[in-house]
Amino acid sequence: MIRWNWAFLDRPVDRFDEAFAFWATVTGSRLSERTGRNSEFAELIPAQGNSYLRAQAVGDAGGAHPDFDVDDLDVARARASALGATTLSDHDGWSAFRSPQGQAFCLTTEDGTRIPEPTVGPGGVRSRLDQICLDIGRDGYDDEIRFWAELTGWQLQSATLAEFTRLVPPRRMPVRILLQRLDENRPAAAHVDMACSDREAVAAWHESLGARRISQGTHWTVMNDPAGGVYCLTGRNPETGLP
C-alpha cells in the first residue's frame, strides 16, 4: 500500500543552487542541508505540513520523477519487477527503478500525513506544485498507463483532452499523476505542474524570479525555471487540484 508520495525535481549539478533558490521561493519552503554520497539530495521543507518535494543534482539536463512511500518495501519491489520495471539500484530503505517505457521512480519507506497549504505570492495569488505529468511515447502509451495503475493500485480516469489520462490517488496524497500521450515515440520523461488561482499572475511572478515563459495554451503555460527545467502552470484549483 502507498501511504505518501513525493515529486522529485532533478536539475543539473552546476545549476542546482540557482534552481532550488527559485523553487524554495515559489513553493514557500526552505531547502534542507544536502545529503547523499555526493551531496546530491535535498528536501524542500514547507512552513507547515509534511514535506513532499525533493531536489536532486544530476549529471544531465534533469527532469522529474515520482517516489512512493510504501508499507512493505520488499513486497513493493517484487511487484514493480513483476510488472516489468527494471531495477536500477537497491538501498537500505529505498530502491530505484525504471518503468517499462523508461520513466525513473523510487520506492521508499517514509511517511507523511498533512499536505501543505498553497503558497501565497504577490497580490495574494495562490499556487501549489501538486502534479507530475508523465510524458509517454505514442506506441507504448497504453501499456505504460496500465503499468502505473497496477503499480499504484489507483484508478485510471479519462481527462477532458484525449491525449491525457489521470491516475486518481487517495485524497491524502500530495502529488497527483497525469499521463500524457505524445505524438512521437521516445522514452518516457516527466515534468511538474502547478495549480494556480491566477495563471497569468503566477507566470509574471515566476518571470520576476528568473523563470522564462515558453508557450501559452488554453489550459496551461509552459515555463522554464532558471536552470532550464520545464514545468507547467495550470488553472486548476490549488486547494483541490481540480479544474
Describe the structure using short key phrases.
single chain; 243 residues; alpha+beta; eight-stranded mixed beta sheet; 18% helix; Glyas_Bleomycin-R_OHBP_Dase; Glyoxalase_6; Glyoxalase-like domain-containing protein
Low-confidence stretches: none
**CATH homologous superfamily of the largest domain, by name?**
2,3-Dihydroxybiphenyl 1,2-Dioxygenase, domain 1
**How big a fraction of the residues is strand?**
35-45%
Distance between the termini: 28 Å
Give the overall form: globular
Alpha carbon gyration radius:
17 Å
List the helices and strands and how they pair.
Layout: E1 2-12, H1 16-26, E2 29-31, E3 41-46, E4 53-58, E5 63-70, H2 73-82, E6 86-91, E7 94-98, E8 104-108, E9 119-120, E10 126-136, H3 141-152, E11 155-158, E12 164-168, E13 176-181, E14 189-196, H4 199-208, E15 212-216, E16 220-224, E17 230-234
Parallel strand pairs: 1-4, 5-8, 10-13, 14-17
Antiparallel strand pairs: 1-5, 2-3, 3-4, 6-7, 7-8, 9-10, 10-14, 11-12, 12-13, 15-16, 16-17
Task: Provide structural commentary.
This protein has 243 residues and is an alpha+beta fold. The chain has four helices and 17 strands. The strands form two sheets. Strands 9, 10, 11, 12, 13, 14, 15, 16 and 17 form a nine-stranded mixed sheet that branches. A hairpin with a 7-residue loop joins strand 12 and strand 13. The longest helix is centred in the middle third of the chain and has 12 residues, at 141-152. The two termini are 28 Å apart. The model has no long low-confidence stretch (mean pLDDT 97).
